[in-house]
Structures are given as structure tokens and as C-alpha cells.
Amino acid sequence: MAHDHRSHEGADKLYDLIDDIRICMMTTVEEDGRLASRPMYGLEADQAGDLWFFTQVESSKTTEISREGHVNLAYSHPSKQHYISLSGRAEIVRDKGYIQDKWSEPLRTWFPEGKDDPQLALIRVHPERGEFWDSPSSTVVHL
Amino acid sequence: MAHDHRSHEGADKLYDLIDDIRICMMTTVEEDGRLASRPMYGLEADQAGDLWFFTQVESSKTTEISREGHVNLAYSHPSKQHYISLSGRAEIVRDKGYIQDKWSEPLRTWFPEGKDDPQLALIRVHPERGEFWDSPSSTVVHL
């Protein structure tokens, strides 16, 4: 769909693009090899470039991530024709310090029990490769 | 992010939603297990419910599909808060009859050589499971 060229300078732009979209489709690998995705609201990237998401600890995606850490984060902004793919490794974080630190009240929309819910956990994604399409070209970024 | 409930009646709605979005992020599995995605313009679903995409025959995604047919198609419409996940199996189709039949001139935007380009091929995705989120709930559809 687009011509690829390589760049080592695109990381800032890539993070700006995903910050503008925030909700991505997170794809994980099921036990039988099927690929499942679901919308996930992303917090701000941390200084290391890792991406964080709140989740219920008991869910199909946390099971899949615990068994097989590969994920893809796909961000789409159709009206701007911006598309971003991030390939990386994910882990489940249950540390209360991180949960307190990352929590903000608007998240109650999805987690009505709030930050003290014992079922609340974080998914941390360490991106390994990013690619973005801001029509008509695409850029590959090694992260 | 949303509560799931099961439905056998949602398939029509799911196809309406994806028809409204058209460009999805197609995720495939790389040889090392990484998950890669890229934007793909979808043609109309056929009568069997299979989804079709034009591609260059020599590309990383066709290599990945030929080795490992599992794909995920993720459709996002942020302003409407519509998100759709389709899990399925993909295959590469090089049959000239299908290519002639599916081709339309607006596709030259992405395939300037047109329908007689020997590098042109189709990806056919046979969906096995669909799920959509039209906030605040989600619906799982077995296809």
C-alpha cells in the first residue's frame, strides 16, 4: 500500500502520532495461533518509550500475554490517513506503585472500581519496531 | 475495556461497520514470532463473507501469509468509537480471473501498473471470529 524507506529519526514523530490517537487495537496470539485484537486506551509513553495500558488482570489478553509476549499495537486515524504499527513485547505489571502512579480519574470510565480494585493491572509494552504511514509514504523506525 | 457478550445475530452489523471503514490494519506473524501490521484497503466482502485485498505479490505480508495463515483485521473509527476485530485465515490468490473481477480503476492509487501488472495478487481472508465495540458494549460473532 505504500513504499517503505528506513529512518532512524522517525521515533519522535511516531510517538507524536500515537499520542494524537491514544486508542489502539492490541493484537495478541491465542493458544491455537489465532490473532485476537481489542481496543485499548494508552497512557502517555514513559521516558524509556514503553507504552502502558490498564486492564483487568483476569482477561483473555493477560492470559495470552503471560504465555506469549508478542503484541502488535495498531493505531488508525482514518480522517488524517495516519496509520501506525508497533511490534513489541508485553508484560503484565501488578506492582501497586506503578498502578498508583499511572492512575488518573478519567480511567473510571473503563474501571469503575478505581485504582484500589485488586483486579486492576497494567500492561507494559516495550516496542521493538515501529512503522507509520502518513500518506503517501511509510517510515520504519527501530526502537 | 468493554464487557463481552455473545451473539449469533451480529454478523450483518459487523459487516456494515467494516464496510463503513474499509481500511484496516492487517496483522501477520513474522518468522521470529513478532506481529507486524499495515494498513490495507478492503474490497467488498463476497457472498461467503470472505474479505479481499489487493497486494504486490512480493511483500513481507505475502511471505508471512504463505507460511502462517493466521491474520487479524483491526478496523478503527475513532470519531464514532467503533472498533472491530476479525480473526481469520488468509491465502494468496494469483488467479487472473479473480484479479480481473475484483479490480476497479480507483485502485490505481496504490497499484499504478493496473490490473495487468504481473506482480498484482489478492489476499483472501476467511474470517473465523469477529468482535465489535460500538461503545459501551462489545459483541462476539462466530462467522
Major β-sheet annotation of chain A: 8 strands, mixed
Radius of gyration of chain A: 15 Å
Oligomer: homodimer
Q: What is the ordering of alpha helices and beta strands of chain A?
A: EHEEEHEEHEE
Low-pLDDT segments, ≥5 res of chain A: 1-7
Distance between the termini of chain A: 23 Å
Q: What structural category arises from helix and sheet content of chain A?
A: alpha+beta
| Number of discrete helical segments of chain A | 3
Mean pLDDT of chain A: 90
Protein traits:
homodimer, 143 residues, 3 helices, 45% strand
Q: What does this entry show, briefly?
A:
The structure is a homodimer of 143-residue chains. Chain A has 143 residues and is of the alpha+beta class.
Give a description of the structure.
- 2 copies of one chain form a homodimer.
- Chain A is built from 3 helices and 8 strands; from the N terminus they run βαβββαββαββ.
- In chain A, strand 7 and strand 8 (137-142) form a beta hairpin.
- In chain A, strands 1, 2, 3, 4, 5, 6, 7 and 8 form an 8-stranded mixed beta sheet that branches.
- The longest helix of chain A is centred in the first third of the chain and has 11 residues, at 11-21.
- Chain A has 143 residues and is of the alpha+beta class.
- The A-B interface holds A 1-2, 21, 23, 25, 27, 29-30, 33-41, 68, 70-72, 74-79, 83, 85, 87, 110, 128-129, 131, 133, 138 and B 1-2, 21, 23, 25, 27, 29-30, 33-41, 68, 70-72, 74-79, 83, 85, 87, 110, 128-129, 131, 133, 138.
